Amino acid sequence: MSEPVTVIVTRTARAGKVQEFEEWMQGIIGAAKGFAGYMGADIIRPDPASLEYVIILRFDSYAALERWQRSEERQGWIEKSRAVVEGEPRMEVQAGLDFWFTPRASKVAPRYKMALIVIPVISVLLLTLVPFIQQATEGLPAILRTVAGVVIMVLLMTYVIMPAITRATAPWLYKKRA
Questions:
Q1: 20 to 30 A from 9, CA-CA: which of 44, 85, 88, 114?
Q2: Nearest Cα to Cα of residue 94 among 85, 104, 86, 82
Q3: Which string of b and e fits 23-41 if b means at least 16 CB within 10 Å?
Q4: Could you tell me what percent of the chain has a pLDDT over 70?
C-alpha cells in the first residue's frame, strides 16, 4: 500500500492579476481532480500585505503525483500561468503527517503553538470519537478496536481537522514575534 503524498506549491500572483490568478488556480485544481489518485486540495490565500498563495494538493501515492506532474494537461496549465504569476513556483513534497503544520514552506510554526493546538484536538477526539468507535466495534478483539480508532483519528486529523484548524489559526500560528 502506498503512502499518501502532499505537494505544497507556493505561487505569487502578479500585481493587478489576482482575479485571473484565482481563475487559473481553480482551473489547474479542477484539472488535477480528473487524475487517478487525486485526494483533494486546499488553498491558503495571502494576507492583505502579500500576493503569495499556497496550494496544497494531495494524492494517494507518489506514482499518482508523478502522473499528474508529467501530464500534458498540467504542462498546459503551467504555460497559462506565466501571464498571471511572478517568478517560479516553490514546491515541497511531503508524505504522511509532515504537512500538518507546514503548509507554508517559508513559515514554520513554533512547536509550543503546535502543541497548544494538538492537545485540545486530540483530547476532544479521545473524549467523543473513541467511545463511539469502541461501541461501534464492540465484539471485535481489543487490538482491532484500537487499530480502528487510531486509523479513523489519524485520517480525520490528516485530511479534515488539522488542515481546517491550521487555516483558521494561521494568523496566530505563523505570527512573527515582535
A1: 114
A2: 104
A3: ebbeebbebbeebebbbeb
A4: 88
